[in-house]
Amino acid sequence: MVKKEPRSMLPGYLIIETTIKNHEFLRRVRKSIKESPYIIQVLAYRNSENICVKDEDRARIKQLLLADQCLETSQGFIEGGRIVVTEGPLKGRESMIKKINRCRREAVIGLEFIGKMKQVKIGLEIVESV
After folding, report:
1. Rounded Cα–Cα distance for residues 98 and 106 (Å)
2. Which of 88, 61, 64, 66 is nearest to 77 (CA)?
3. What sign for the dihedral angle of Cα 91, 96, 101, 106?
4. Residue 96, pLDDT above cutoff 70
5. Residue in 107, 108, 98, 111 with CA at minimum distance from that of residue 126
6. Res 87: pLDDT
7. Under a CB-based contact definition with an 8 Å cutoff, are residues 127 and 75 in contact?
8. 26: buried, middle or exposed (CB in 10 Å: 19+, 13-18, 0-12)?
9. Are strands 74-79 and 82-87 parallel, antiparallel or unpaired?
10. Is 61 within 8 Å of 67 (Cβ atoms)?
11. Where are the alpha helices (DSSP H) in 1-130?
12. What are the C-alpha distances in Å from 1 to residues 4, 33, 105?
């Protein structure tokens, strides 16, 4: 039996959605950042002071999520060494898959985020091999 547990899609990152402008947000959280042993830094894009997640990065992430901001497990099969996803957020996005671990029922995908390629673990159930 497989037990589903919620986990972070981008471990180590805290993404805050707000209408507060860049500099005002930094001003408000500066004290919390200094006092917290867990917050190392606020990320920004290279050569920029913009800490807002770019629309294209946000769209890339939202393509994989359901309306409730959850990333569900995909299902598929292997045919002649090629992965075919039949259900879930990876359907039609097989090219994102870098490797699979059938025992752990997960795939590692490449996801561009904040100007860097991140490896993200996502549920992938391989139901058969052809």
Report:
1. 11
2. 88
3. negative
4. yes
5. 107
6. 93
7. yes
8. middle
9. antiparallel
10. no
11. 22-35, 55-62
12. 10, 41, 12
Residue pair 117/124 in contact (Cβ under 8 Å)? The answer is no
Average pLDDT, the chain: 84
Entry field: residues in the chain: 130
Lowest mean pLDDT among 13-27, 34-48, 67-81: 34-48
Nearest to 72 by CA among 96, 95, 88, 91: 88
Confidence of residue 41 (pLDDT cuts 50, 70, 90): confident
97 or 6, which is more confident: 97
Amino acid at 54: K
Mean pLDDT of 106-114: 90
Query: Which residue in the block uniquely carries the two structure tokens 């409730």?
Result: 68
Query: CA 64 to CA 88: how far, in whole Å?
Result: 9
